[in-house]
Structure formats: C-alpha cells, structure tokens
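Data deposition worksheet. Section B asks for the primary sequence of the deposited chain exactly as it was used as input, without tags or linkers unless they were present during the calculation. Section C holds the resulting structure in token form. Section D is free text for depositor observations; keep each observation to a single sentence. Incomplete worksheets are returned to the depositor.
Section A, Depositor: J.P.
Section B:
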Amino acid sequence: MAGNYKKFVVYGVTILAGLALIVISMLVSSYPGGRFGFLPQRSFVPQQIPGAVFIFGRHLPGWIGVFSVIGAYLFLYLSGVVLLFLIPRQIGAMRNAFLPVDDRRMWRYWLFFLGLGLLSLLALSLLTGIGLVTDAAFPLPLFMLALLLLIVWIGLITFGLVIGAELDRLAGAQHPNSLVELALGLLVVFALGRLPLVGWLIILLMSALSLGVVVATRLGYGGDWTLSGLEQKTLQIDSDSFSGEKGLRQGPDD
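Section C:
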C-alpha cells in the first residue's frame, strides 16, 4: 500500500510539473494579440510569424495551442514507442550505458558522454555544412543532415526512457513498464524543450549527451570503433565445392 502511494505521488508530481512548465511556456511565448500571454508587447516572436516555433512545435494561442501541444507530445511519444519495438536491444544497451552499476561514477560517465557528444555534433555539423556550401555530392549533405537528426532523435528517446526509469526507481516500482517510463520521461523532455529560449539550450545539452551515448555504444551494438574489419585476408576457394564444376568434371571428354 505504501509503495503504491509513493508511486502515485512521484507520477503525480511529475505530470503536474510537466503540465505547469507547458502552460508557463504558452503564457510567456505567446505571439502578440494571442489570447495567452501576459507580455504581448515583449513577445519573443515577431508579429509577422503566426506562432512561436520551438523544438517541439509551434506555440499557438487559445485552444489551437492546446491541441497543438497534445498532438506534438503524442507524436513524440508514439514515435518513441515505434522505436522501442524496432530496436529494443539497442535502446536497452544505450539506456544501460546511461545507468552504470556504480552510481557514484554516473556523473563521470555523463560528463564523458557530453564531451563526446559535443565534439561529434560539432564535427558532423561542420562536415554537413562544408558539403552544403561546396555543393559536393549533392544531395548527400542533406542525407547526412537527416541522419544526424535521426541519430539525435534516437538518443533523445533513449534519454527520455532513462528519466522514466529513474522516476520508477524513485517511486519504488516493483514491476516497471517501459511504455510508462517512456511516457513520463518524454513528458519531462517535452516540457523542458517547450520553454522559450532556455528550451533550446536544454535540448542542445540533452542532444549532445544522447549523441555521446550513441557514439560510445555504436548505436547500441557495442564493440570498439576500429578498422580491423578492413584487414586483408586470403580467401581460399575450393573449386570442387561448386556443383557446376562437379558437373563439368563428370561430363564426357571433348
């Protein structure tokens, strides 16, 4: 009974805090003339733009904005669910990399992942930018940009699952559900990403951290980054193993 009460409190506080951040972001970032917004003269968005464009969708006024928020979160969550069913082992491996056995060394791992992710993000962005500017092998730079966004998205979904797992651990859940953990974790990520201005910085740090885990674990497949697979090896081929050769040998002589 006590465990269920603790679980209810943790889940309730997480959901209420996430909803509060979403409402605050709608109030602060509403464009001039909107039904929401207590600073219409100091909006972060120019008047000619019909809504604030942020990480997870537009900030629109009134009930349109409410439905936009619900739709954006549902898209993020359902796409994450699809990803869990597509590559569950890889997602699990990356999640485990976020959560080492020794909790005292967790922050060291996270700092390493953050630094690796920032370097990877910078390198891939520069490479993509050079390709776009020089128009080299077009449209390959666009595919590289799409690949970078896809990898970051996979990392963010994994990070949301990590947040949900930590909330479940805090709640003392005896039978954790990955779909529930994903829903709670992505709510936190979604709410923080909707914040004006600050949301961009938060998502950038989350993206770099997640990208670092993706690179360190080779997208959850494990192993070292090495070129040993390119070593030259002599391939021995036995001609007798081919049925065609056997047929030729068994045929009559010319």
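Section D:
The mean pLDDT is 76.
The chain has one domain: 2-224.
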